[in-house]
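Hi Y.,

Following your request, here is the sequence exactly as I used it, all 321 residues.
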Amino acid sequence: METVGTDRHEQREDLLSELLKPLRLTGVFDSRWHVRAPWAIEGDAERSCAVLHYVVEGDCWITTDDEPPVELHAGDLVVFPTGTAHRLADRPERQGVPLKAVLPERQPGTSGEIVIDGTGPESRLLCAGLHYDASAATGLYTSLPWALVLDGPQVDREPLLRDTLRLLAAPDRPVGPGDRLITLRAFEMALVLALRPLLRELADNPASLPLLRHPGISRAVVIMATRFAEPWTIDSVAREVGMSRSAFTAAFRDLVGEPPARYLAARRMQEAGRLLAETSLPQSAVPSRVGYQSAVGFHLAFRKWFGVTPGEYRAGEASAA
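Below is the corresponding structure, written out as tokens. Let me know if you'd prefer a different format.
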């Protein structure tokens, strides 16, 4: 029995390690907030965008539909992995103004500032929208809770995260053209550093992420996420985890949020795109590296996924660089 428990713990660790692989950020809009009560700001849902709020000074409340309010204090960090719509305010019951009314332009690569002068307590926040490549965001990522909170002591136990956030929140942070890439990667690192302790907590509390409670589906996700180069089919993965195809497909869709065939294709395409964009591997060698036995089959699947051929994708990435 002890061995089984150990195996399941290791499987959970393997599963969560997949979430620690950073989503490649494509752009960041960040803003510094200097607000005095009374204040409240409503943020819309963001597509393909994680949202981060770091409380530099003071307190605030976060509210969203159908969830209890969350109070934040100085030093606390909250991450919305999938950009859920929410309100920030000095009081949870206060109605707010739309974010687009106080920050009408929020283009990735730029910064903004919100100043609200009131008569009450002051709060200062660092807020950021972290735009990521949607093709890399599989159901495993999108099944994360709507908000993940690290309180001040937890942030302090992650010195690199704490220091990165403080540097990003500094009012004299450089914002020149050469600094934008550094800022982008710094936020990318902050996101991963924030997810690490949060996911460690999820591993200790499987009820918060239902996928962790199902050993067959958890194992299948790890197989497809890490062994995608092997010639897996949905039938062979189902057999590998001891399930029928129908039961496996239904349970996978329910727990992961998408069909297993799409999850496997997403992981393969994500790696194919990376090999084409970031390595000099011959294009002819890519299909076998991502689990395709047929170059034609790979070419058709790649074009369907990205809307361009592998050659066009590589040429486009090269010209963008």
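The first strand starts at residue 25 and ends at 36.

Thanks again,
Q.
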